[in-house]
Each structure stands twice: as structure tokens, then as C-alpha cells.
Amino acid sequence: MALLGIIALVLIGAVVVLPQLWVRRTMQRHGTPRPDFPGTGGELAKHLIAHFRLDGVGVERTDKGDHYDPAARMVRLSPDTHGTPSLTAVAIAAHEVGHALQHHRGERGLKLRQTLVRIAGVTDLFAGLFFIAAPVLAVIARTPGAFLALAATGIALLAIRVLVHLVTLPVEYDASFGKALPILKGGGYLQDGDLAGARSVLKAAAFTYVAAALMGLVDLARWVRMLR
């Protein structure tokens, strides 16, 4: 049994860690500045926003990672993405503008994700307090009914965050392959030889949420085991 437990831990670690390593390697491999590119990721983002007439949407640098903020209607790009003329920067910038397009068109997937993120913001606060107090609560919950209520609360709080990750996956996939890649290809922003690299970068951008979803599922499985 101990050996099986160790093997399970190794497999879980591989499933969670390996995608993150692959994402980092892919981004770095295509992150070299390209003198043949006419502009940086930030400049491409501004151009695409103007091209698609996304009035009210802005672009700014951030130290909090590349993302689109629907509330502020802002495409926020990391310093490397914003200021570097690389394949990674261009692809990521197009991906984040893809989210701005989803918002502008009122697409249901992004709306659902926004709603769930707001709910998760509240439940994450309760989850933080709950898991800090969990050891004490476990001592108090000596009866089977109290123990089941404790475990069910932990599962419910974690399940909401997992649901956010799962809903996010198709939204991210669409931003990469329903928006960004067709824009880069159809608009002639990249040469044919760069499209395979852009596809890898965009796959990596969407895959960051796969790793997050897997980690959430691992945490959820730990609590489900408590009910067995």
C-alpha cells in the first residue's frame, strides 16, 4: 500500500508539474526578439484593438501576468510581452485581444466565466478561513454527521474553483484557436514558417489553465477521500 501511495504521488506530481514545465519551455523557446517583426506584442495589441474597433479597450503593462480585465476593459501584458518583438509576445498579445473580442461580442462562455469568478472570489475567502480552521474543526467534529458536514463543506468550496477552471478551458481555447491564430494567419501578421511556433505558444497559453484545473482536481480528490 505504501508503494502504491508513493507511485500515486509521483504520477500526480508529473501530471501537475510537467504541463507547467512544458509551458515555460515553449514560451522561452519562441521568446527571442525578432528583428524582422514590425512591432512588439504591445504594439500589435493596440493595432488589433483599433482594427476591430474595440472602443474603450486599452493596453497597459503589468507585473501580474498577461490577461484581459473585462471590468476595466484593459488588455494587460507583462513587460516581456508588451515590449518585445518576439513570436511569443505577438501570439500572447493576440490571445489576450481574443478575450477582448469575446467580451465585445458578448460571448456566453466569457460571461459565464466572469460570473463564476465573482462567486469564486467570495468562496475563496471562506475557503481560506475554513482550511486554516480545519484541524481544529476536525477535532471538534467527533461525530460521523459533523465529520461529513466538515468534509462536504471543504469539497463544495473547492468544487467552485475547479468549476471556474473547467469553464475557463474552452474560453481560453477559443481565444487561442478561434480568435488569435486565425487573426495572425488571415491578417498576414506572421509568415507561414512562424505559424507552427505560434500554434505551440497559443496551445501553451491555453494549457496553463489545464495545470490549474488538474491541481484543483487533486485537492478536490483529497477531500473526497475523507468521505470514504
General description of the model:
The radius of gyration is 21 Å and the shape is elongated. With 228 residues, the chain is mainly alpha-helical. The mean pLDDT is 82. The chain has helices spanning 2-29, 41-51, 79-83, 87-104, 108-140, 144-186, 192-225; strands at residues 58-61, 67-69, 74-77. Helix 4 packs across helix 7 (192-225), helix 5 (108-140) packs antiparallel against helix 6 and helix 6 runs antiparallel to helix 7.
What's the short story on this structure?
With 228 residues, the chain is mostly helical. The chain has helices spanning 2-29, 41-51, 79-83, 87-104, 108-140, 144-186, 192-225, and strands at 58-61, 67-69, 74-77.
Trace the largest sheet across and list its strands: 1-3-2
- Strand tally is 3
Helical percentage: over 70%
Cα gyration radius (Å): 21 Å
Structural class: mainly alpha
Strand content: under 5%
Tell me, briefly, the overall form: elongated
> pLDDT average, as an integer?
82
Keywords:
75% helix, 228 residues, mainly alpha, 3-stranded mixed sheet
Question: Any chance you could write out the topology, listing elements then pairs?
Answer:
Layout: H1 2-29, H2 41-51, E1 58-61, E2 67-69, E3 74-77, H3 79-83, H4 87-104, H5 108-140, H6 144-186, H7 192-225
Parallel strand pairs: 1-3
Antiparallel strand pairs: 2-3
Helix pairs in contact: 1-7, 2-4, 4-6, 4-7, 5-6, 6-7
